[in-house]
Amino acid sequence: MNIRRAVKEDIPGVLDLLSQVLEVHAKIRPDIFISGTTKYSSDELEEMFLDDDRPVYVAVDGENHVMGYAFCQLQPPPFTSTMIPRKLLYIDDICVDENSRGQHVATELFEHVKTEAKKLGCYELTLNVWEGNDGALAFYKAMGMKPKETQMEYILS
Fold it and tell me: What single-letter DSSP state applies at residue 9?
């Protein structure tokens, strides 16, 4: 397995994984996510893959098939006079192909992202996990992540 920045040739594999992760979210929150869609189009991915402020990393096998990805965003902290300014790397999305699970792809991707964040001078990695995505939550805890804040909702129906 090799982990590297995504390139144009990875788009079909990344789109397949985007579809897989969307279906996980659509099962958890069908009131929010639309089954059968993907978060990004091919054109958006092509543009994103070139953006150093939004790096996308892929794990590929020996034949360059995409086994997993990590979409990231470099973010400056919100400026307030009460907070110490620190750069962070936000993991917007991480997914491993259902056929590649159990091969430590997610662990390798996460470790790679940590290394890249350190190289970029980041203070921390952050991400959000949807309530009900228990497998992802357990994985992130196993990687040493801890809750920072909790977003609450009240649905007005």
Answer: G
pLDDT digits (tens, 9 = 90+) for 11-50: 999 999 999 999 999 999 999 999 999 999 999 999 999 9
* For helices 42-49 and 11-28, angle between their N-to-C axes, nearest 10 degrees: 110
Helix (H/G/I), strand (E/B), else coil: 91: strand
By DSSP bridging, strand 124-127 and strand 88-96 are: parallel
Contact between 69 and 14 (Cβ < 8 Å): yes
Please give the C-alpha separations between residue 31 and each of 27, 37, 127, 130, 131, in angstroms, as whole numbers. 9, 14, 22, 13, 13
The pTM (predicted TM-score) of the whole model is 0.93
Structure token pair of residue 8:
């144009």
- Residue 126 pairs with which residues in a beta bridge? 90
> Long-range contacts of range 16-20, CB-CB < 8 Å, 24 or more positions apart?
16/66, 16/97, 17/66, 17/68, 17/69, 17/95, 17/96, 17/97, 18/93, 18/95, 20/95, 20/97, 20/98
Domain 2-142 top-level CATH class: alpha beta
